[in-house]
Amino acid sequence: MTDAVENRLIDIEIKLAHQEDLVESLNERIYQQQKQIDQLEGTLALLAERIRTSNSAQAPLNERPPHY
């Protein structure tokens, strides 16, 4: 193998190693973001349920108080 071909092969291997590292770090970031999205969706569902249950327990907004 000539030096030029060997150097090109080494450059390609270096670039491939960097790309593999980048893909792995992007995968980890996506995984962490999905965990956060799942957690936020759970929190949102709990808050929505709390709002639904608290609204049904309150008097309607247009109803007059009993002393009128």
Automatic annotation (TrEMBL):
Pfam families for the chain: SlyX
Annotated InterPro entries: SlyX (IPR007236)
Source domain of life: Bacteria
Keywords: Coiled coil
Any coiled-coil regions, as ranges: 9-50
Gene3D superfamilies for the chain: 1.20.5.300
Family: Belongs to the SlyX family.
Protein name per Swiss-Prot or TrEMBL: Protein SlyX homolog
Species this protein is from: Pseudoduganella armeniaca
Gene: slyX
